[in-house]
Design a protein that fits this description.
alpha+beta, SMI1/KNR4-like, 6-stranded antiparallel sheet, 6 helices, Knr4/Smi1-like_dom, Knr4/Smi1-like_sf
């Protein structure tokens, strides 16, 4: 899991932020949204913090790849604010947002009961705010990010590493 995350961040992250999430912030997110987040998201934001990946739009569009771009993977506080705002705007409350694309659509996990053990990973869904639809985009966060890493290796688009591993 962590190798995929390191490779993804090295290839695409442009945030230059070294602010990482804490266990307390993740617990606060889980309390406010009445959910358990998967270990995959927890590990990502504790190790890397927020990701800003605008070059994924070019990777996807320049190479006609059938993927949604990822603009940001956000820290827990922003995830809480974004999720609550999207719930008010019609996103089903079974979804908890943690990332977005360049058009403002939200990548989500389904809510996990607090009484459940923390899952290692979870399927990633996209809430399309224009159509009010939710679509499965990957069976796990790790596979979701690996898709972009693999796509960058099979295209002629050059991505300059961000220098953060």
């Amino acid at each position: 899991m962590h190798q995929v995350y390191s490779r993804f961040m090295g290839l695409f992250d442009r945030s230059h932020s070294m602010v990482c999430a804490t266990d307390a912030e993740i617990t606060e997110m889980e309390n406010e949204l009445d959910t358990m987040v998967p270990e995959s998201y927890r590990a990502f934001v504790i190790q890397f913090g927020e990701a800003f990946t605008p070059s994924l739009l070019s990777l996807v569009t320049d190479n006609n790849i059938d993927l949604f771009d990822i603009q940001n993977i956000v820290l827990p506080r922003k995830a809480v604010v974004g999720t609550k705002a999207y719930w008010e705007a019609g996103m089903p409350t079974q979804n908890v947002g943690f990332a977005n694309d360049c058009m403002g659509n939200m990548f989500c996990f389904h809510r996990i009961p607090r009484s459940s053990p923390r899952p290692l990973d979870a399927p990633v869904y996209l809430f399309d705010h224009d159509f009010g639809t939710v679509e499965l985009v990957a069976p796990s966060m790790e596979k979701w990010l690996q898709t972009y890493v693999s796509a960058s290796m099979t295209t002629c688009t050059r991505h300059v590493p961000a220098g953060r591993n």
